[in-house]
Predict the 3D structure of the following.
Amino acid sequence: MKKYSLIILVLILFTGSCKNLVDGINIDPGSPSDAPAIAMLTGVLVSNMVLQEGEVARIASLWSGYFRGVQQQYQSYQQYIVTARIFDDNWQRVYTSAYKNIKLLKDKSRAVNNIRLLGVAQVIEANVMGTASALWGDIPYNEAADNKFPHPSYDSQSSNYAKIQSLLDSAIINLNSTAFESFTAQDIHFAGNTVKWIQTAYTLKARYFMHTREYSKALSAASLGINSAANNWMAPHATSGRGAYNLYYQFVVQDRPGWMDANGSFAANLLNPAKTPNRGNAKTIERARYNFLFTSAGALNTTVNGFFGQASSFPLAGYAENLLILAEAESRVNGFDKGLVRLNAFRAFMAGGGYISSTYTTTGNIKYDPYVLADFTAGGMENLPATSTLSKESSLLREIMEERYLTFIGQIEGFNDLRRVFKETDVRVAVTPNTGTELPQRFLYPQIEVDLNKSTPNPIPSLFSVTTVNK
Amino acid sequence: MRKKDNLRQISLIFALLFLGQGFFAQSTDVKTVTGVVRDQNNEVLPGINILIEGTSTGTVTNLDGTYSIVVSSTSAYLIFSAVGMETVREQVGNRTKLDIVMKDEATALDAVVVTALVFEANRDEIGYATTRIKGENIAVSGEVGLVDALAGKASGVRISRTSGDPGAASQILIRGQSTITRGLDPLIILDGVPISGDSRGETNGGTTQQSRLNDISPDDIASVQVLKGASAAALWGTRAANGVIVITTKKGKANSLDISFKSTISMDEVSAFYDLQSNYGQGTNGVWSPTALRSWGDKIANRAGGSDIFNTTGASFIGNTGQVIYPVLTKNAKETYLQKNYDGVLGLGHYLDNSISISGGDAASNFFISLNDLNQKGVVQNGSNYRRSGFRVNAGRQLNKWLNISNKASYSLINSDRITQGVNNAGFLIGLLRTPSDFNNENFVGGYAATQGGTLIPNRHRSYRNHIGAGTNPGFNNPLWITNELENTSYVNRFINATEAKIRPNSWFTLTTRAGIDYFTDRQSTYFPYYSANAISGLYSRDEYSQMQFNLDVIGQAEKQFTPDLHVNLLMGFNYNSLNTASIGASSQNFILPDGPKDFDNATPTNITTNDSRLKRITNAGYSSVGFSFKDQLFINATGRLEAASSFGELSDNTFFYPSMDMAWQFSQLSGFENFKALSFGKLRASLGVVGVQPLSYRTRTDFVTRTFSDGLGGALDPSLFGSGSYLQSVNGGNPYLRPERKEEMEFGVDLRFLNDKISLSATYYRNNTEDALINIPQASSTGFDFLYANAGNIQNRGVELDFAYNIFKNKDWNIDWNFNWTLNRNKVTNLNGAGSINLGGSAGISSRAVEGYPLGILYSTPFLKDESGKLKLNSNGFPIADIVAAPIGDPNPEWRAGMGLNIRYKNLTLSALLEHSEGGVVANGTEAVLLDYGTSATVGNESSGTTDLKNYAGKVIPAGTPFRGNIKDFGAGPVALDESWYVGLGGFFGNVGEQFLDDATWTRFRELNLSYKTSSAKLKKLLGIGSIIFELSGRNLFLSSKVNGYDPDSNNAGAGSGRGVSYFVNPPTRSYLFTLKLNF
């Protein structure tokens, strides 16, 4: 009998193959499967900061005459030697860092009726998708980050801009809602201040109307946009830990020293009083702005109060941009006189120090006196020589474009401007290609999309293929 | 006869249940059998157990080796057994006197193989290919690690050493790569229980990691059995897809006491190094500059000579040798320092390996105790070492007639310090090979003063771009800084225990219970002081990892001789395996005290990041096998395993079945073959089986995580340092449908032996298909995920394995053995379900990938644009143009590989040699590609001048006859000048076009050469108590012949991972000379 029991026991062991021994233990004790909307907010805001301030901004800057890539991969980028693979990472910042979490955050905010939080998420979404639309042209939007679509289709650049405008309209309504649970601690930009968020939404609307060259709409949006430097939308940084440092500082000082500088770059030369020609004139001294941005040796200023300093906050959208949108749009829509008033408003702001750290605004280093009509007519200081055939309107616009160009040093908007007015040869900033005869007109679609998304255009447009809105 | 009835009934149950066969009765014929048992030397053997098979009746031989036993049937078999001796099974037949010669196990080893469950089997009776490597052949290799000692010794097994670093893991491939991302390490069974043999944390940059398989001292090993095919391994289910390596440690011999001592000293040297130029100095565009990144500076021969002119009125650096260094105003000196810089950090490595063992036993028990210590210093002169110390206690005892117990326990302590390498700005060779030839790396650390008499800042790091230590960032590390200042230590404590109890209540049934524990902790620390590349304000990290694997097997075995012609064995078992790992650690930067302690308190809280992870995985299974043998000629074995594991998805089937079957037919036993004397043995075999690979744990749902956003080639932002922290949805999609990978394999083979076994030949053809390969599928990010872990790939391997051995000559004094093995494997990724290409490793520019329709590991990079006929498209200057999307550019897998061994013994002198060859395949030389860009490669140290005007890459015309630095090449539109503009652009590594840097990976290497002399005499024994002394002289990797320059084409950036064929600043390979002394008491 003993022997039978043994056999039976072995048989039970065999056939039993105990599934219940292994059930329910495949859950990572270290990671939750969900998180509430408010707990996602900071992460979403930071994901957008990386997009606006990181590699995308650096590559755009190399191609805008702001900086020079001198070593390793950056030397190749400088020469427009890029491959689709290089853009994988940036694309991931757009979709899997930012956009998909924004979608989740929006759904969760709606579910708990935190409407103001929904509004904030919409503003971030507009900034993320607006940036991506500007750089890549047609991009997946309607079908993006949705389980139902394994091959998200590419929506046209113009329809995406339209969608972003209505998204911002909705954001402005939602930010005015009284339904919310406080997210002061999580909102690293404005600590829950909806006035500032709403102004930011208007400035972004104005920015994207500029992209699509809808100047009168841009003008009216900007009139409700950021109205003081105190309301600037900035990416905050701190010295507390490495992951809180300014990304330019991390790149230039810590991770890739020597890869990128501004020595002899078009923008640096334009500002540098030691170089000729530079844009200084009887009414303008740029030494403060130059010193704020660059060192005397032509490197990026990464010192404590420098633009690229360790804890220096980085502009996402601000009063300066808003003033310059008003200036350009006003000039284009309402003509010279009103445009000049707007430009002088910006110069007045700069004369008071503008966005320059007070460390550099010492007397003698800074001067932005108001311009007058005579400065823009032929022979005027902004329309030399005397034989110039450029109209006062164009010379004003050229001055505004140059002002915008310099104000956006290190930012993606500079690259967007260059491409937008590329065909307006009389007013555009005369940046020359780093190599060859063409300026890059877009970022490449990434290799991961080429490999895996069947909706990706085939072949992908080249670096020099103009996006729809700039055609 | 009641007992017999019982037996019959039980046998009947077995027969009905599993065999579907009838039951065959035995005839009876009672008689007494007597005889003498002797060993091979004709000495009588007392205490040998004798048992009538299928009964509990038995006896033991007397002191004079004689025995007497009553048997009841002429068809009965007698089983003669003793510890340390080969068991003999002999049919009584009509004889009444039966003398037996028993061989000790070492001699018998050749004919014995172990199965996946570590039961012994006769190699002539199994239906699959397997290779057994004896312990002495492993110990003789001179390799520190067990893995490398297996190299070249078996067909179908490919061992690739990834770097010359002490203790570095090697890639093990058995019959090609049959999984894409789930790790290639085979399952390691040590004394019957699975242990960890993998390497943790292999990456492209950082340091090479250790294989945990190397924790086992080669001197403790009795044999290693490599089970290559699925049918051989199917009883391990989801753990056996990469094959199984069954390691058996030594045990004591019956009735003896052996004490042996072994000491080996090894001298190691660098066996391949890059050719560098010393004609041009640091700088760009032909102009010397002390801060330039590259060596495209002035021609050193054109310098004025004499001493440099310094600015001694300003900043200065006081180096560690006491020398004061000032900035150079005018570079006059013609000295170059290639050799000096090399000698400063690379030289002779060495190790000392000592082991002592005591073993022995009596008729019923055995023991083996060993102590070992290996202390190795790498060829990198400082900061590269490996020390392994351990002990082992193996003991077993036959407690009574039905119970045998044994326990094998070992402990090892492994300490090592590793050198940074690979894709890593802190890497060793990056620092050394990029240093301009006119820069002296001496004085790597010292004090810097910005002005004369100014404050001295201590411990500044001086490197070629930071020549007076003025900057806090050195660019790349000075190699001396790496060896002297950086620490990358690992500290492993490992305890392995295997316990076995065998209950044998009667002659036909055995119940074996095995329990095993493999527990280890691994503390890895990294310390980069202030001013190190990648960590300007210091970096200290520590990771405390522990892993506990518990394994339990309960196995019942029954066997029965049903008729004289039919023998049946049956096995059923249950397996439970649990794996628990935990890792806790932290990393700190921005030290408060620059030279403060290695402690997390030396940083503020926000400068410390922590990691905390735990993992638990449980697998359990039931399995069974049934084997038949007919007329000792046809052998059929079938197995099945039904398995459930915690890592399977909730929505997939929860149990999986793994069947196998093998068949062996000894056709040489057919009556016709008796007259065919030349063929002494012939066997045909065939098998098929299914094995699997488990999914990773915790991948069945999408998690929310605290994540840091990395910024392309720059830094990162960490949301936990902003606001109140944040949880976001992971970029890795969860998958509730996960199921194991399944690998189906079939193989056919033939084993032949000729001329009384002097020649043996074994040939195998196999073909396997892996379905549902688990891949972390990259996702188009627009879908919202970067990766989805899923069963998505199909891979196929086909191959041929040949093993040939020839005992050329043998007499009392001479023995000459020659053996040869040859392997061919063809691999193809047949389906990736639209997953694009899967990155397996390499570097950003050239990676090794899985791409549908190509062999696994295919090299992938941006190619030059070509027209339909494959001709390069050229620009107006006559240079090629880079594409913007990447494509497959070359196959790193060899065409075939072969190993050849020779053993010559003359009296007490033995010479053995092992040669290995790998034919075909390509390797991408990323290192050289970078050195071209940096201008330090010898390829760009020369001057050329054209016979016609030449354009350079920038379009500049170099007139005919004008010398320029670089080379001339014709891409198809006439010759062009390859000068600085080409190499720092498209023609260098950072031009992203990888196809220019492919080398033929064919190599031949003299892996081992060993000469040993054994002396033993009664005099020695009497005087010193020494039974024998063995002296050995060995060489390892004495000679490497390949078509590449400067590195080992087998080296690999992806370490022991599945990526292959990219070499990028991997630490240099080594060659060793060893002397061994063995004393046996």
User: Anything to note?
Assistant: The radius of gyration of chain A is 26 Å. The beta strands of chain A are 68-69, 139-140, 154-155, 233-235, 260-261, 284-285, 314-317, 367-368. The first helix of chain A runs from residue 2 to 16.
